[in-house]
Design brief:
By secondary structure, the protein is α+β, with helices and mostly antiparallel strands. It folds into two domains: 51 residues, Roll (CBS-domain); 59 residues, CBS-domain (Roll). The strands form two sheets. Strands 3-4-5 form a three-stranded mixed sheet. Strands 1-2 form a two-stranded antiparallel ribbon. The relative contact order is 0.15.
């Protein structure tokens, strides 16, 4: 993550299908904060639940999906293949201030 300057990484199985997402928050909360060495933990043990995704052709669904699931990053799937990631920063660069502000507000509510 540090080498790539990213806050999350996809976890794919041998079949190249997305199995989960590992975030920097997962590492901090589930390893470091509990006194565990992250190097001794597998990505699968730190990641949690089924990842929320967006289809490669579903651009109109990005805001609603991020908002309803309170996530800042979405893996982009084409069929069963992981083809990319879209982050809140990507959305903020592409949209006007109002929708982005509404999205940030929805994501950061407890």
């Amino acid at each position: 993550m540090a080498d790539l300057d990213v806050g999350s990484l996809p976890i794919c199985g041998r079949d190249n299908r997305l199995k989960g997402m590992l975030t920097d928050r997962d590492i901090v909360i589930k390893a470091i904060a509990q006194g565990r060495n992250p190097a001794d933990c597998t990505a699968g043990k730190l990641a949690q639940g089924k990842p929320v995704t967006i289809g490669a052709d579903d651009d109109a669904e990005i805001l609603r999906t991020m908002s309803s699931h309170q996530v800042r990053r979405l893996p982009v799937i084409d069929g069963h293949d992981l083809v990319g990631m879209v982050a809140l920063a990507d959305v903020s660069r592409a949209l006007s201030d109002r929708p982005v502000g509404d999205l940030v507000d929805a994501i950061t509510k407890s």
